[in-house]
Amino acid sequence: ESSPHLPPPKDVKVYSYNFHSLLRWSPVEVDRGLVLYTVHFKTGAFNQWVDMNCTHISQTECSFPWSLKKRRWTVFLRVRAELGQVTSAWVETDEFVAERDTTIGPPKVNSVTASSDSLLIRVTPPFGPEAGDFLQYHVSYWENATSTTKKEMETSNALFKIRNLKESTLYCFRVHVELMTRLSSQLLGQQSAPECSRTTIS
């Protein structure tokens, strides 16, 4: 039975980055004794609270199990504090859908090969795509001397070329990913840090 003397966890929030998701909360402070926590989940399709492999844990976070790795599922979570036989009230999260609510990081720039009029760039996506996903790379680039004028290009290839550049000129670029899904929703990722390369002399 929940007790008014043991406060529930606060700041209960799902953190999700590149589809790796976990639940975090602030520790419950008590004068003596070790506070433990238990986490449950339920899905939009199955309205029944289920154990989440985080029962009587002392840490204040709980990673999503493999059974919850479906990106399109609607998931609800709840956590409570426990001190001996005493438990706090449950705290429930808002609904979480990974495909809508995760944060997508920047792609990794693996290599840049310069020629006199182009830069050949190879990147790695921030996460492994699933069947039905479509990744679009948005590239913005600019001449370093005139960084006010940016040009944009889009490509679905992780190996792409920025063309029609001036020779022996320093160019900078940034890349971010847009994930298109079967639900036709779109998730925009974070931009990579600017990288600069000088074109060669023909």
Automatic annotation (TrEMBL):
Entry GO MF terms: cytokine receptor activity
Species annotation: Cuculus canorus
Keyword annotations: Receptor
Designated name of the protein: Interferon gamma receptor 2
Gene3D superfamilies found in the cross-reference section: Immunoglobulins
A GO-annotated cellular component: plasma membrane
SUPFAM superfamilies: Fibronectin type III
Domain Fibronectin type-III intervals: 103-202
